[in-house]
Target: Rho termination factor-like protein
Amino acid sequence: MEKPRIKNEDQYEALRDKGYSKEKSARIANTPNSGEKGGKAKKYEDWTKEELYSQAKNVGIDDRSKMNKEELIKALRNN
Model:
């Protein structure tokens, strides 16, 4: 069986060093904008539900279609 590919190995290893699980580290490191410099994003409370849903989809949150805006925010923050 072939080992799953990680798009951003450096970010994956940094997250593992911080204590993140293999699954969470891989999910974050494999997002389309992985490794891009951040700090300019608006607070989740200022996002639309559609934007939150899209982000939840990008990071692989299950059951997102059943969540309201507050639940999506909580899931994104705790993912």
